[in-house]
Amino acid sequence: MQLIKFSNINGALAAATCTLLAGVSNAQADEKSNDWQFDTAIMYYGEPDRVQAVEGVVSATKDFGDEHVFSTKLVLDTLTGASANGAVAQTSAQTFTRPSGNGEYTVEAGDTPLDDTFRDTRVQLNLAWNQPWGANQKVGAGLHISNEYDYLSVALNANYALDFNRKNTTFSVAASYAADEYSPEGGIPLALSKMAIRGDFANDDAFNSGFDDTRIGESENKDTLDVIFGLSQVINRRWLVQFNYGYSQVDGYLSDPFKVVSLVDDTGSALGHYYESRPDSRSKHSIFAQSKYHFDSLVWDMSYRLASDDWGIDSHTLESRLYIPLSDSAWITPHVRYYQQSAADFYRPFVQGDLAEYMSADYRIGQMTAYTLGLKYTQKLSDGDELSMRLEYYQQTPENSGFNSPGQLADVDLYPSVSAVIFQLGYKF
Amino acid sequence: MLQTQQGYHWQLKDEHASIHFNAMASPCELLVDTLEPELVELLAKLAYAETKRIEHKFSRYVADNIVAKINSSCGQVVEIDQEVFQLLTFAEQCYQLSEHLFDITSGVLRKAWHFDCSDNLPSQQQVESCMQYVGWDKVKFEHNSIRLQPDMQLDFGGIGKEYAVSRVAQLCLAHAPNNSVLVNFGGDIQVSQAKKNGQAWHVGIEDPITGKAEQVLQLTSGALATSGDTNKYLLKDGVRYSHILNPQTGWPVVNAPRSVTVLASHCIQAGCLATIGLLYGADCEDFLQAQQVKFWCSR
Q1: Is position B204 within any domain?
Q2: Is residue B201 part of a domain?
Q3: Cβ of residue A28 closer than 8 Å to a chain B Cβ
């Protein structure tokens, strides 16, 4: 680790520069009007004892006239905390090697093994241009870049929309292609190799060589192609519906380099932990339906999404929002979301006997239900700016999809629930 | 074709127009991606007027401007306008961000230090007698007013030219929204926006020692600024004392590069980074590395 002597002040200096130059031109009443629209938000996400994230979002939109719109969005988030590494809990303490190969962490008896080295800062930038094309068509294109310490994603997208039936019906198609590169600290583990633990080796050199044997390289790639066809229909002046069909194809390295699967014996005792292995492609189909109904003052937004992929994960999402005006300038939005998914064919909370060609104990591809309850309050200020606050509670409950728990595994929680609190503060000007 | 007006002149070349005038003790040049005489004349007039306005307002050699008023206020409150307030706010932010190294009150130290290439170093006593009048933290300013302690002085010399470059580039963008303009005031440079055909402007960075254009840069957008101690130093017992003074000690920064050039979005931003880099002396490169900007140091 390089010692960082100087911090980066350039961002703050750039902001000071913009204030200086913008402030002066305003002061001198430049004829250029300030027609940029800004939307800023800061969000906190916290899972007790697990991940915490703080995210800042700035988006800016400028209308160059005649609906020629440029928009840009910058997201900065930092993540810290611990994330389940996939290994089973045991009735005695366990030791794991950190993903980097440098050092170990110990998990107490009965606890779900969490890798506490989870720490990242992510910067995302989106740029988009949208404009009409002829009387009834719209086209747009965009670029998305996301960069983390160990991850880089670059995506291009394009969209097209056609209005017909006197603009009561809109057909749209959008496509996006993303190229991602993953270069985790410690390199890419060899799928199905056994996690090297320092205690199993005579000395540091032997351990280091054993650890290196579980690595296949520095980085891996994946490509994602998404296509969405949409149809929206105005039913009457109060009711709007939207239907989408989406297809997504991902190819490349789809495993999580930080996740392992425990191999256990008849008594449920872990004999070792093996790096997970996932297929190198995944295709997913999804159908989405949404209805927005405008009552006299309330607006009710309800949607359902069905997704199915060739990993065997089927999911259902039901979501509903109600916009309730409190006055001319304030409204609240209660939000409910329910989510359910089946486990991937190769999901294994642990393995017995032989390793499988594909296996993963990542709870995120196991059977689960989750729900979100939230409330958002929005206040329009006298100068047209908008202030909003959002508080949400999220609960995720992984479920056993039919695995018997031998021996000591019956005494530990193999499917621990995760809950999180989300708080967001937004300002639009 | 050469056109001369009061104070400035311009000419149309093969693919672009160039505007020239002298201000802020530098040759000032604008390259405009157009061959339309009306536009060139408009930009020349605006750029010249704006540069002269800033020079007159913020120079410490002008007898009756706001800087003179503040510097001779003897501890009294002086009224300021919005632009002065904005620049003071900017200077304050630079002071904070640079760990108090960037300080526009440090000009007083020139009373002790004369960088005439001689070996006449001031005594520690002389330096200390100046130091009591140095320190941005002693300055009180608000939206409409500023108060300096008696005998303290403000000097916008470190940011004035870069500020003018950024302001002129901004004016060019507003009045020539379809043309790229390169503003170059004695090596402090900003491009108003990229050329429509995507081609770059070619800019020579001078080697401060030989004075020759050492490196030709291709600049499509953004800004360059250079800080350095070229030809301003003292030499005693083999030690070279640069004219960059550390406002914390009152002594010249040691082991600073002779010249630093930084590439950033705005000229004033690039200029501040270059100056702060110099103030970090031997650590200049480390500091600039951490800023994740392109830079060139010559030692």
Answers
A1: no
A2: no
A3: yes
pLDDT band, residue A1 (cuts 50/70/90): very low
Query: Does the CB of A3 have a partner CB in chain B at under 8 Å?
Result: no
Last residue of a domain, one of B194, B218, B246: B194
User: Which of B156, B188, B269, B275 is best to mutate for the A interface (most A CBs within 10 A)?
Assistant: B269
A379 has which bridge partners? A330, A387
**Is A152 within 8 Å of A146 (Cβ atoms)?**
yes
- Which chain B residue has the Cα nearest residue A27? B82
Evaluate if residue B2 carries a pLDDT over 60.
Answer: no
What is the rounded CA–CA span in Å between residue A315 and residue A341?
4
What's the number of domains chain A is made of?
1
Q: From the CA of B198, how many Å to the nearest CA of chain A? A: 19
Is this complex scored with an ipTM above 0.85? yes
Instruction: Establish if B205 belongs to a structural domain.
Output: no
Q: What is the DSSP letter of B219?
A: E
Q: What is the mean pLDDT of residues B268-289?
A: 94
Between β-strands A260-264 and A351-352, what pairing exists: parallel, antiparallel or unpaired?
A: parallel
Beta-carbon separation of B97 and A5 below 8 A:
no
Contacts with A27 from chain B: Cβ below 8 Å: 81-83, 86
Domain count across chain B? 2
Q: Which structural domain, as residue segments, surrounds residue B87? A: 66-155+226-298
- Spatial separation of the C-alpha atoms in residues A96 and A87, rounded to whole Å: 10
Q: Does A304 fall in a domain?
A: yes
Please indicate whether, in this complex, the C-beta atoms of A20 and B268 are within 8 angstroms of each other. yes
Dist. CA A8–CA B296, nearest whole Å = 18
Domain with residue B291: its CATH number is: 3.10.520.10
In a shared domain, residues B90 and B151: yes
Instruction: Write out the residue range of the structural domain in which residue A259 sits.
Output: 34-428
Residues B20 and B147 in one domain: no
- Binding-site positions of B for Mg(2+) read 158, 275
Range from A82-86, A276-280, B39-43, B61-65 that averages highest in pLDDT: A276-280
| CB < 8 Å to A25, chain B | 170, 174
The pLDDT tens digits of the residues spanning A345-389 come to 999 999 999 999 999 999 999 999 999 999 999 988 877 788 999
Q: Is residue B256 part of a domain?
A: yes
Q: What pTM did the predictor assign?
A: 0.55
- Using CA atoms, how far apart are residues A113 and A107, in angstroms rounded to an integer? 6
Selection from B48, B88, B141, B78 nearest residue A23 by Cα: B88
pLDDT digits (tens, 9 = 90+) for A292-321: 888 877 889 999 999 999 999 999 999 999
| d(CA A407, nearest CA chain B) in Å | 54
